[in-house]
Amino acid sequence: MKLHEYEAKEIFREYGIPVPRGFVTSGKLEKVEGPVVIKAQVLVGGRGKAGGVLFADTLEEANRKIEELLNKSIKGEKVEKVLVEERVPVKKEYYLGIVIDRVEKKPLILFSTEGGVDIEEVARRNPEKIVKYYVDPQEEFLPYMARNMLKDIGLPSPEIPKVADVIYRAYRIFREWDATLVEINPLVITEDGRVIAVDGVVHLDEDAYFRHDYSRFEEYRKREDLPFAYVELPGDIGVIGNGAGLTLASMDIIKEYGGNPACFLDIGGGASEEIVKRALEKVLEREDVKGVFINIMAGITRCDEVARGIVEVLKKHPHVKLSVRMMGTREEEGRRILKENGISVEDSMEEAAKKLIEMLNNGE
Ligand code: GDP
Ligand code: MN
To answer: Could you identify the atom of ligand 1 that is nearest to the CA of residue 117?
Structure first.
């Protein structure tokens, strides 16, 4: 789960990492105190380059630029809020990132004196400009470790303790919030020698939801609590199965016959009529979905429950193009319910997939 910049900076502030003074708004300002930076609060990267970070020196200019951003989309994401911040007098821009290295199975701290720009670019051109420090997850990460990390990269000595302090605090955030990414780019040294986090990116681990109260974050509040596994895909054929393996196989068979899955939706084992109904409704929420493939091998799942769920949804969506393959527990009953409602059930997934693709191609 991605946090907005202003949310990341709230956490930074709580952990004692210096951030610029500022506030979030989606309206006009009544005054500005000195030069400001206006930043679109979107979750896509490379915002600055895409025109999402603007500067203003007067109230009139600030309001004009706020309006400009609020009427804009940055890389397809509509801007709903902006962060207005004091403009920091930048002398140098550093990079700090903390991630999990999946190969080493350890948190990895990355630091570079070449900040502000795309860090992947630095990694390609000047890999020696990036210091890497693996943290032993069993041990505490202490301030002296952060200082050691910065020893040989040519930071002026008065900066080392200040930057190390930010690294130490950022790592605490990473651990205590179960983050998968904490990034400060740029971490700025100001003309008067202060260290300030001018940008902030924090991603939280969705598997750690149960350990935290994340309800203060926008993305968490928007999150839907679905009673099934759902992954949206770019195609136009909804794919519903029971069990991850069968659902993946269903996606393959759709591909095999020339179709493109619009989703992976696994209703799991023993799904009730209600869950099946919500699953099919979820798939049909998308207007670009042209047909739905349902593939059920019923064990603890019951074909009659699945059939009832489907029929409920068809009352609201009578014209949906549907192909069902269903076998196992209560198959007879399930087939009967579907048949009474004008839906036939195919015997194999190949037949079902073929039928659906033909239906869509013929525009039936
Ligand atoms: P990003 O493009 O989403 O990473 O947005 P950033 O918040 O990193 O801003 C992009 C760039 O704008 C930074 O790398 C800085 O060079 C510049 N910038 C942002 N805030 C300030 C500021 O307060 N003062 C100055 N001088 N530059 C800033
Ligand atoms: Mn940035």
So the answer is: 14
Q: Which atom of ligand 1 is nearest to the CA of 5?
A: 7
Measured between alpha carbons, how far is 359 from 353 in angstroms, rounded to an integer?
10
Q: Which ligand is located closest to the Cα atom of residue 21?
A: 1
Give domain 21-86's CATH number out of 3.30.310.80, 2.120.10.30, 3.20.20.140, 3.30.1490.20.
Answer: 3.30.1490.20
Q: Which CATH superfamily is domain 229-358 in?
A: Succinyl-CoA synthetase domains (3.40.50.261)
At 267-276, the pLDDT tens digits run: 999 999 999 9
pLDDT of residue 364 exceeding 70: no
Residue with the smallest CA separation from ligand 1 atom 11 is 48
Report domain 90-220's class: alpha beta
| Pocket perturbation via mutation, ligand 1, pick of 9, 90, 94 by most ligand atoms within 8 A of CB | 90
Question: Known catalytic residues?
Answer: 95, 183
**Paired sense of beta strands 82-86 and 22-25, if any:** antiparallel
Could you give the CA distance from residue 327 to residue 324 in angstroms, rounded to a whole number?
10
Q: Is the CB of 22 under 6 A from ligand 1?
A: no
What are the sequence ranges of the domains in the chain? 21-86, 90-220, 229-358
Residue 110: C-alpha distances to residues 132, 164, 171, 354 (Å): 5, 12, 11, 51
Nearest ligand by distance to the CA of 96: 2
pLDDT tens-digit series, residues 310-327: 999 999 999 999 999 999
pLDDT tens column, 268-310: 999 999 999 999 999 999 888 999 999 999 999 999 999 999 9
Residue among 159, 5, 147 nearest 82 (CA): 5
Residue 85 in marked binding region? yes
Count other C-beta atoms under 10 Å from residue 340's C-beta.
Answer: 10
186 φ, ψ to 5°? Answer: -95, 150
- Whole-angstrom distance, CA of residue 68 vs CA of residue 63: 9
